[in-house]
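Ligand-bound model needed. magnesium ion.
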Amino acid sequence: MEAVVRLIDVRKYFPAGAGILGFGRKYARAVDGVSLDVYGGEVLALVGESGSGKSTLGKIVAGLLEPDGGKVLYRGEDLFRILGRRDVRHKIQAVFQNPDSSLNPRLTVFDTLSEAIKARNPKLGNSHLLEEIVKLLKVMGLSEDHLVKYPGELSGGEKQRIAIARALAVEPEILVADEIVSSVDVSVRAHILNLLMDLKEMYKLTMIFITHDMGLVWAVADRIAIMYTGKIVEEGPVEEVFKDPLHPYTKMLLTSSPSAKLVGAYVDEKFKARGEPPSPIDPPKGCKFVTRCPIATKECWTQEPPLKPVSANRKAACLKI
Ligand SMILES: Nc1ncnc2c1ncn2[C@@H]1O[C@H](COP(=O)(O)OP(=O)(O)O)[C@@H](O)[C@H]1O
Ligand SMILES: [Mg+2]
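Prediction:
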């Protein structure tokens, strides 16, 4: 399979506290050396606890945030060098958790969608524009009645569907979906997820699906990458990772997830959740997971395990594997 996006040792450090006269300035290592391939047509779930760096990595892949180190390749070219090209900019779109912060409250649904469609196709005539917008609304399970509405007049689920429609209006190749159902009612969650899966087929999308919910991973993803304190600690096909996780952190996530239990995922009480993730400003020297790991030994405190291949399609970063 061909990688459409390739991350090579990507880093993003945010200043956190000024230090004295700029000396000793501290940084939150939000993304701390991530190498990851995203294959064409796959849904790659990016999973981890809050603060692990998922959103930062998602924004980098979407071209919205430039990394401080490493490279992001889009079809072999440096993404941040070619972003100025309109054809490239439209290829990667992102949808975020909160549609209120991504939709302009002063634009009607019609305005929002026509802006997006015109961005891709500036010469489109008005009748075709309306046709395209209505088509898009239908795909999203919305009607023409929504055209004149402002975000304030829509439900949370409707707003999120408009945000997804806007992203699709420019016909992207890659969609970064960052916790897109976390803020919508449970009752419309399944509807939006089903819709997303249909859209994936229809538009032949490659998706990076960011979530902290293992149940969602099982429902939508082909592959999973587990993130901990700015690093990928395990990567592989969802079914294999759920049945036979390699990294102790993956074991902890699965053991403590009721929805993973429901689909028969790995459980081992030895790995039940304990402690909190370390601060990305001052993480442990060796393995970042060492402070919570039930199988850590002395060397884990001093040696940082690299993410290395374990089999043809799986990787893990643990000295004990
Ligand atoms: N704009 C920012 N400025 C400073 N720190 C940030 C910024 N964005 C994220 N961080 C920090 O980077 C780390 C990772 O954040 P984030 O990528 O949002 O994680 P996640 O999406 O997994 O919850 C956190 O410690 C967070 O506080
Ligand atoms: Mg996030």
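The radius of gyration is 21 Å.
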